[in-house]
Amino acid sequence: MSRNGPLALAFHGLFVTFMLAPIVVVCLVAFTPEGFLSLPTNGFSLRWFRAIADYPEFVHAFWVSLGLGALSSLVAVLVAVPAALALTRYPVPGRGALQALFLSPLMIPHVVLGVAFLRFFTALGLGGTFLALLAAHIVVVFPFAFRLTLAAASGLDPALERAAISLGAGGFTLFRRVTLPLILPGVVSGWALAFIQSFDDLTMTVFLAAPGTETLPVRMFLYIQDNIDPLVTSVSACVIAITMVFLVVLDRLYGLDRVLAGKGSH
Amino acid sequence: MTTPSRSTTPLLELDRVAKAFGSHVAVEDFSLAVAPGEFISFLGPSGCGKTTTLQMIAGFLAPSRGTIRLEGRDLTQVHPSKRGLGIVFQSYALFPHMTAAENVAFGLEMQRVSRSERTERVRAALAMVGLAGYEDRHPRRMSGGQQQRVALARALVIRPSVLLLDEPLSNLDAKLREEMQIELRQIQRNLGTTTILVTHDQGEALSLSDRIVVMSKGRIEQIGTPQDTYERPASAFAAQFLGKTNDFSARIEGASPARIVAGGWSAPAPVGMRGPVTLSVRPERIGFSEEGLPGRVAARIFQGNHWLFQCETECGPAIVVRPNDGLPQPGEGEAVRLAWRPEDMSLRAGAAA
Ligand SMILES: Nc1ncnc2c1ncn2[C@@H]1O[C@H](COP(=O)(O)OP(=O)(O)O)[C@@H](O)[C@H]1O
Ligand SMILES: [Mg+2]
């Protein structure tokens, strides 16, 4: 921090405040004993946390979101790794066009994607199913998994794989013992970002979800259309807590700086 | 290892190998037979095709033409993982997620060598390169020289039929490079491993090799022992690349007996050459004497154990190196005559450039 002048410090301070203030306020409101959105001035209460139990839809929606995030990010990574390796290793014809295609979901507004997928899956007779939701999520989270995996794969010194090959490694052994461990930081980062994107998406999902396949953001969105009480803040507080645990575990296992920067291991 | 005799069957043979990248020819008509135990250097400036040739031997590039044989067997269809060659890369290419011992053990694991034998061979290999006790270090916590040694141990522990080294010492500082050269030569001699070294450093090639392959623009300029290539360079390029040399414009004059004449210096001419020739002499093979090529000392530079003279002669500029033996030396501006023994020069047809 010593290199930063007072102006830069003030900027950083403001920035962090703007980022953190909503989260802090939401968490505080979750502990209010009142029946309306307010800061807990008359002591703390857990009544809105207990209230979650009376709305099993929230718990169900949480599991839908978790499953959807886990599955879509997993599929995205399983496709992204071979795609990125092929694109960085072989003179694939139309490499630029392929990369642009893989990244294109990033450039299409989610509202448009939502409408398009809705029409598409309805026409297929899959409207409102978990399968449709999963397919749509795979498409939108894939660019995140792909970009970070591609960065890791293209940053890999080709001499490392050649060294392994010259020592007798081939095929899957080469991948398992050398290539994968070396691009793993990028793969894990891509997977984490993809998961967060899926878990977080409302704009597209709200078009596709039906009763039974509502994700947590969709459920909360629908809830606040009819009710203005602190229940959504207590649900939010739970999600924030789970996210924190997730990040701490990731940091312990892996180092958060590496995951967020998507850097290689060397 | 003594200098291998030419009669032994070659271990590795390159037969008119060529490689083109699109329309760019990187290697052309490369033929070489490497005897068992031999230490060969590919020497040439950057971009002359050394790495490309090495990569073709290793199997990471397919030749556009020609064949490569190892122990008489055509390598073309053999996957690089099945060639059994040891390679040391310029960047070392140590696996960053493995310790020194794990790096060295990798090739043995691929060969399914038993755990106990593996441990023993890894320990011995690391000890051989002077890294006993470094088994559990990760490469990122080792110096460049230490990483270099691990890379060498990793390539040698699999007992490769040929060891390929691509500019292995170019990332080390001068002092360490010299130490590693000596060590590399000792290890190579002790194990008797046939070795091909790629380098652009003529000193390295001269001091390490049994034979040097001088390359320029994808072609072989000369193949010979270090002494051969230094003292009898086959081309202007080879002469210039292997240390300093003087090129004088001379003529073959008269007939039976013809003489080669460079100003006031002359000697019997070899048969078969006529007209203008270029005469090449190393600076340390020229002496000052009573007769010979007349010239003038333009500059005299003291360099500790020797003197360096820049002279002007009617056949072109000349550099002369004389040992600092305590005897009086000509001063700047003094008229001198340059002379050398006919066996110390090499001749090429055509005038000096
Ligand atoms: N993969 C490649 N594609 C195109 N040209 C290449 C490739 N590899 C090398 N070259 C070219 O071939 C020539 C020889 O390269 P290289 O063998 O690496 O030279 P050196 O190792 O002697 O410095 C150079 O002109 C280089 O630009
Ligand atoms: Mg090279």
Automatic annotation (TrEMBL), chain A:
Write down the PROSITE patterns for this protein, in alphabetical order.
Answer: ABC_TM1
* One matching Pfam family: BPD_transp_1
Q: Which Gene3D superfamilies match?
A: MetI-like
Domain of life of the organism encoding this protein: Bacteria
Q: Which GO terms describe its cellular component?
A: plasma membrane
Question: What name is this protein filed under?
Answer: ABC transporter permease
Q: Which residues cross the membrane?
A: 7-31, 62-88, 100-124, 130-153, 174-196, 231-250
Per the UniProt record, the source organism is Methylobacterium terricola
CDD domains to which the protein is assigned, alphabetical: TM_PBP2
Q: Where in the cell does this protein reside?
A: Cell inner membrane; Cell membrane
Identify the keywords attached in UniProt to this record, alphabetized.
Cell inner membrane, Cell membrane, Membrane, Transmembrane, Transmembrane helix, Transport
Automatic annotation (TrEMBL), chain B:
Q: Check the record and name the Pfam families matching this protein.
A: ABC_tran, TOBE_2
Give a yes or no for keyword Hydrolase in this entry. no
GO BP field: quaternary ammonium group transport
Transport as a keyword?
A: yes
In terms of superkingdom, the source organism counts as Bacteria
Where does the ABC transporter domain lie? 12-242
- SMART domains hit by this protein: AAA (SM00382)
| Gene Ontology MF term list | ATP binding; ATP hydrolysis activity; transmembrane transporter activity
Q: Which Gene3D superfamilies would you find in this protein's record?
A: P-loop containing nucleotide triphosphate hydrolases (3.40.50.300)
InterPro entries xrefs: AAA+_ATPase, ABC_SmlMolc_Importer, ABC_transporter-like_ATP-bd, ABC_transporter-like_CS, Mo/tungstate-bd_C_term_dom, P-loop_NTPase, Transp-assoc_OB_typ2
Task: State the UniProt keywords alphabetically.
Answer: ATP-binding, Nucleotide-binding, Transport
> What GO CC annotations are associated with the protein?
ATP-binding cassette (ABC) transporter complex
The record's similarity note reads:
Belongs to the ABC transporter superfamily.
Protein name as it appears in the record = ABC transporter ATP-binding protein
Organism encoding this protein: Methylobacterium terricola
